[in-house]
Amino acid sequence: MAISPDEARRIGQLARLGLDEAAVGRLAGQLSDILGHFAALAAVATDGVEPTAHPLPLRNVMRADEVTPSLTREEALANAPEVEDGLIRVRAVLE
Amino acid sequence: MSELWRLSAHAAGEGLRAREFTAVELTESVLARVEAVEPRVNAYITRMDGIALEQAREADARFAAGTATPLTGIPFAVKDLIVTKGVRTTAGSRMLENFIPPYDSHVAAQLKRAGAVMVGKANMDEFAMGSSTEHSAFGPTANPWDTGRVPGGSSGGSAAAVAAGECLAALGSDTGGSIRQPAALCGVVGLDPTYGRVSRYGIVAFGSSLDQVGPIGRDVEDVAAILDGIGGHDPRDSTSDPAPSPDMRHYLGRDVRGMRLAAPREYFGDGIEPGVRARVEEALARLERLGCEVDTDLSLPMTEHALAVYYLIAPSEASSNLARYDGVKYGLSARGGSMWENMERTRAAGFGEEVKRRIMLGAYALSAGYYDQFYLKAQRVRTLIAREFRDAFARYDALVTPTAPTVAFPRGAKLDDPYAMYLNDALTLPASVAGLPALSLPCGLSEGLPVGLQIIGDVGAEGAILRIGHALERDLGQANRLAPLP
């Protein structure tokens, strides 16, 4: 299972990791090696086997729609890198 | 009285209740020990000396008022992905280097409610991704048994702090072995509870269907008492088990005669060091002498696939969970370019190499064209692994295996080979993907370094594995073992 540098570059862009070319080459090799060790998985018979998303048999856990105490606006914004008028300031999404 | 840091948590609790010493004296002893050994161990990212002494004074007030609990006054290390209100929580990452949480995680609140003392935030592999605590943005932690070796990971700071006397007990988190493997390598006791036993509210997320908080202590009684203090239903975590959590200490000190154990063959294969295998086999012989039935013929053929299943599912969940670190709401934020440039610069600078590797692996396994082949396939095989365990627990009360294939290895030995590092978790991953509880406890030394024995239980059966572990620990006569660190 080989991952080409082109594929590694594409995945790195999807994940917004800002990889440089050296990292792309290194990660392509390492990921190819890791996935190579996982090849035996393909041979396991799984026809008709349901996937497990998480181990507890819990479904649709709901809570009552009630107002409970929460963070103040100041607390919620205390870690934001840029705040203006009680709001998080962000770069324009559409230029 | 000068070396109170040597006590187990339950022995310290007895001393506190009997007024032989105060919580302030106990905490001062631990803080002096931290001061003495921390330059060699680096178990903590953030020390909390002032808060610890304040909490110790409050604990003494509770002893005076008669409102103390079993954890009151006990000095704890808390893994630095456990969110603590007003105290920096980094998850071992540059991304969160300056993050001061505005709220407490459920487990931090439970420790405070119980009157425990927090000594500091323990070092860890970045975002809990690693098996050696070398992937921390705040420098590696050393193994107190041999400071040239790793303590295991990712809860390496928590395990090393317990072994070095820099706390009496600790909280860690386990996704694929991150409590049990460092506990094994540092010669202490670690318990990964059943998935859903302990609330994940306020735990920095790695693999949400696998992450579980649990205790690390100097003996089995301590981890049982800590689980009693932190376990139970929390409505703020939708995967928290609503069933009541039983009193774990109730299972200790009981006879283990007639208990049915199996040592599955797949856990004793070629990758296991001879010294590790020998100590675990000796422990199995002890359990037989204590009256357990031990079957060494059981085969669990799905075991070999657990590593691939885990290293597809956990990175997939991580790639999704870590998408939140975008430099907008909190955490590191690189400024000066367009929105996309800022996001890429933030993530390039904030994440370390192993985190990037796992995000890549997960994003690949989830991407169009590979989802069925990798992620969905891993989820189906996950079902088969859980089913195989379920069938085994119809016949056995617990499974006994080595915790890790080797003793602690030298720092740097596996840093250049990610897959070799992943193999450290080969014996702890199967229970993780099935959501089962598993205990690691020391069962002797090999080459002068601790060997860990793992006891895996059925869903919700922490009581059974604590009962077996407690009986074995008594028989071995090695409770409360500290590392020989001067």
Q: What are its keywords?
A:
heterodimer; A: 95 residues; mainly alpha; B: 486 residues; Amidase signature (AS) enzymes; 11-stranded mixed β-sheet; 39% helix
Number of helices of chain B: 15
Cα Rg of chain B: 21 Å
The main β sheet of chain B shows up as: 11 strands, mixed
At the fourth level of CATH, the homologous superfamily of chain B is Amidase signature (AS) domain
Mean pLDDT rating of chain A: 92
- Give the biggest sheet of chain A: 2 strands, antiparallel
CATH-scheme architecture of chain B: Alpha-Beta Complex
Please bin the fraction of helical residues of chain A: 25-40%
Percent helix range of chain B: 25-40%
| Radius of gyration of chain A over all CA atoms, rounded | 23 Å
As residue ranges, the low-confidence spans of chain B are none
Largest interface (CB within 8 Å) is between:
A-B, 50 and 67 residues
Spatial order of the strands in the main sheet of chain A?
Answer: 1-2
Which strand order spans the largest sheet of chain B, edge to edge or round the barrel? Answer: 1-3-2-4-6-5-10-11-9-7-8
Oligomer: heterodimer
Query: Please, how many domains of chain B?
Result: 1
Q: Sketch the topology of chain A as an H/E string, one letter per element.
A: HHHEE
Please state roughly what percent of the residues of chain B sit in beta strands, choosing from under 5%, 5-15%, 15-25%, 25-35%, 35-45% or over 45%. 5-15%
Q: End-to-end distance of chain B, in Å?
A: 18 Å
- CATH domain class name of chain B: Alpha Beta
